[in-house]
Structure formats: structure tokens, C-alpha cells
Amino acid sequence: MAPLPISSIRVGKIEDVQELIKSKPNKVPERFIRAANERGGLVSLKTHFHQPIPVIDLSELSKPHTNDDFVINHGLEVDVVDDIEKVAKEFFEMPLEEKQKYPLEPGTVQGYGQAFIFSEDQKLDWCNMFALGVHPPSIRNPKLWPSKPARFSESLKGYSKEMRKLCKRLLTYIAISLGLKKERFEEMFGEAVQAVRMNYYPPCSSPDLVLGLSPHSDGSALTVLQQSKDSCVGLQILKDNTWVPVLPLPNALVINIGDTVEVLTNGKYKSVEHRAVTNRERERLTIVTFYAPNYEVEIEPMGELVDDETNPCKYRSYNHGDYSYHYVSNKLQGKKSLDFAKILN
């Protein structure tokens, strides 16, 4: 098992957003203010009369059909979902000195803080994050698993076990939708890697100047997003060069296709570029599960989905650990990380 790849270089002092707003600043600090063409703007659903993401009922559907979906009847018990949300909220509500016992250190992708920061002048996201490797156990850093809240470890392990089952089901449906045998993805993934990231987006007095999370696609195979029940609109997906807000649905999970599935399917499924915006009055909490092949696995388009005449190979062969290293060693810039794998004509 390869070690979890390197992450952000710790650069200078990174401001904690929750602590920042406690001081009630008169204006948003310059470090968070985006260029005019990068700003999220004020969220409005008035121009979007329909839900842009299809809703898939896993109790009835045999296969998914898009690159970004809501799933309902996903099999996760309500109390499991509620508990991880409560535990995550309790963690972010702890004093800063308690959370700083689990810092995101140089050379890791786990811990509390801001990731993907590589320079003193790089703009910061209006967000606090806490990320942990979950499976296989060898990627866990026990020192970063909090002792408070008391139920944290138990809750996360139970939740992640159920999420793992869900991801395997979804990959089965994707394989069927492509005419592949249902075990195709799981057979090639080996002992799949699973990680979780908890995101807390405090209210922002000037949400039109900042971003909660920079635009990006995920390097995983699948990403499962759980939004807290009282979440405001924060997620936006890029569709036809327009950022479309996604209205949260009760008891639904958002499924994002990651870069790895785009490569494996030779572009038949495409990873979704997305970002998060903030709200003037309301906070937002999300729990994100990343599911990907083992770091030792060689990734390339599946032979069944490549045809020299009608669908030539679009991506080169590479080691998944190398791609993971590449992904976390660069700041978030849309789908630019996928250039690592593309065959340039």
C-alpha cells in the first residue's frame, strides 16, 4: 500500500474562518477576496425553475445515467446519517485550540485546516475543513482521530462502512449501464481507498466577494456529498459554461463522478466541475466521501470502451498513486488536473 500522497505546503499563517468572523470584521480580509471573474455572486434560484440534477431512486433503478445525480432510498439508515452530521457539527463548534490538536501538516492530506495552499498570495476559501483517511486502515493517522466529540471515531467508522457499500453499488450500476460485467470496477480497484472530508462554511458578510470552495473536479472515482438538513444552497455545478446552483433535497445524497471514472470509461462518463458559494446569514455543513482505486493500480481506459474508429483512446495509462500525488500537489483549478492523463493530439 502506497502512503497517502503529499498535500499542500504550509505557507505562512492561514486564517481560521470561524475565528475570523467572531471578531466581526468591518470587511472581508483581502486574502479571501476573489478577482471579479472568479466570484460566486449572490445565490438565486429565480432563474432556475427546475432541479438541474436528476433524482435517482436506488430502490427502483437498475442503472444511473448522468455524471452528477441525487440518490434517494440509498440504503443508509437515518440515524447513521443524522449522527455523523451531529458529530461533525460538534467538532467544528469546539474551541480553536482543541481543533488545532489535529493540524493539516506538510506532507499529508489529513487533518484540520485549509488544503491546496501553495503560496503567500493565493486566495483562501471561506471554509474550514477536516479530512481523514478511512480505508484501508493503513492510511489512517490515529493521532488525527479526535477524542472529542466522544462518539467521533465510532460514528465515522459506522458511516464510512455504509458509504463503502453504497459506492460499490453505484459502480455496479455504472458498469451495467456501459454493458460491462457488474463486477468490472471492483475487480480492478483492488482494496479501494476511502477518505472523508468535513466542510464547514460560516456565514459571510459579503458572499459576492468570496468562494466557499474553489472550482474543481474530484480525483476520485466517486464522490458522495451529504449536506446538513438545514443547509442553504451552496453547491454549484458548471453546466454549459454556466454555474448552476443545486437546491438541497431532504435525505438525498449528491453523487459526483470523479476524474478516475472519466478516464476508465474513456470519457463516456465525465467528471463534474463544481464549487461552493457562501451565504450572508446561514452556515453550511457538508460531509464528503471520496472512493477511489488502490494507489498501486494502473489506470487507463477500459479496452471494451475504446474503438480506434468511433471512440479512440483519449487518456494514457498511469499509476493511480502518481495521479493522486499530482492532484494534491496543485491548487484547485477546474478540471486542469485531468490534463495529467489526457492524450494531446
Rg, rounded, reads: 19 Å
Biggest sheet, open or closed, and with what strands and sense?
Answer: 8 strands, mixed
The pLDDT mean sits at 85
Distance between the termini: 34 Å
Output the helix-strand order: HEEHHEEHHEEEEEEHEEEEH
Cross-sheet strand order for the largest sheet: 1-2-10-7-12-5-4-3
For the secondary structure, the number of strands is 14
Shape by Cα distribution: globular
Give the topology, please.
Layout: H1 17-22, E1 55-57, E2 68-72, H2 78-93, H3 96-99, E3 111-113, E4 128-135, H4 152-177, H5 184-189, E5 193-201, E6 213-216, E7 222-227, E8 235-239, E9 242-245, E10 253-257, H6 259-264, E11 274-276, E12 284-292, E13 298-299, E14 318-319, H7 320-328
Describe this structure in words.
Helix content is 21%, strand content 20%. The longest helix has 26 residues, at 152-177. The strands form 3 sheets. It has an 8-stranded mixed sheet with strand order 1-2-10-7-12-5-4-3. Strands 6-11-8-9 form a 4-stranded antiparallel sheet, with no helix packed on it. Strand 8 (235-239) and strand 9 form a beta hairpin. It is of the alpha+beta class and 345 residues long.
